[in-house]
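Worked example

This section walks through a single chain of length 444. The input is the sequence exactly as stored; nothing has been trimmed or padded.
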Amino acid sequence: MGAGQGWCLLLCLALSRVAADPEERQWREVDVVLDCFLVEEDRHPGSLASSRTTVEALLVLRQVPVLDDGSLEAFTDFQGGTLAKDNPPVTFEASVNLVQIPQAEALLHADCNGKEVSCEISHYLLQATEKKASFIANVQVPGGGPSVSMVMKVLRDAENGAVLHPTLKLPLSPQGMVQTAVELQVTTQTPLLNFLLGSSASLHCGFSVAPGLDLTGVEWRLQHKGHGQLVYSWTTGQRQAKREGASLESEQLLLAGDASLTLPSLTLKDEGTYICQITTSLYQAQQIVQLHVQASPKVQLSLTNKALPPTLICNIAGYYPLDMTVTWIREEPGGAPVPVSGASFSSLRQSTAGTYSVSSFLKAEPGPEGTTYTCQVTHISLEEPLRSTAWVAPPEQKTAFGVLLASSLFLLTLLFLGLQRWPGKLLLVLSPAPAPLHLKISQL
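Given that input, the structure is written out below as tokens.
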């Protein structure tokens, strides 16, 4: 068990207490400790190739404001002296006094909810020739949880007699930690989104900048199937929308840290990976939002009686993405529904909008009292399967109906031939409305 996991176990025990009334919750500053990996790339002299190595690391976000539900009374701050003596992880102590961490509560409770937060730390180079004095941490809560990127500036300079980290060559605090301060954070509450075709989507992107740094640019780009394109850009006082109808929040909200993108009337061309990039006078960081566009299928079941046994046709139209499941179900009166095999399919059709359509065929075998057939369609855009049902009459009823129809036609034929032998014809005249309907017989 890592140092971060042991600390989170103590926190979960504290959180297991009875929570206070939501109206009584107050803000409290706590330490958020995350198990991470430090990624280092060593470029070989005279070569473009580089090697990538990862080592265990620990990220300690100091005194992060979170809402206390009454379960944090027994909670204590992280102590660096609790780290293992042998091969301790590289520990980064990050102050958040200069920025806001709006998703801190989700990070704090992730382990208690059975979610393992992914955290990767790497060097951040302001210039190619600059020393490695800054780092960037990318933190993600799994299962569609928030994602946060933080640029951290190293605070301590190498002083005479200061203890240096053996590999990073950076000065350590008396507790053996690399001291940093978060100067830029970019976050998204919704890294994975699903929207229906034709609807309007809002892609969240928030940020916080340390005092003394200026926001100089916001850019949204779309990557899909190997192609990239600019969607929207903002620089001081200038906006440019490359996608028709795309917009950012008002200037006031944007400068306050909300760079969310709105896309109206979604088409399948809007699907893909969106990159929200925030640029300041010193740093640059980004977040990724995956947008999936979906279209729900329309299901129609029909019966053709041109041949025996009759054929059921289930038309599934206008769905996206492609993956879809069709299940046929047969049910006789008083019996249980039973899945039916042996269905066939037409060739796949695709509309100009990009949605798909297909037809499924099934030979009906009705029982002596008739049978109900159901075409059930399952698709990712549906909360529950769509069903279309048809009742197929038994063969005996169809035979009786055929005999009755043939007899009726025969009698009508005899009546018509008899009328032809009359010396004149009967003329039926209906008087116009609103007079009551009446019948007149005229001899021609």
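What to look for: The chain has a mean pLDDT of 81.
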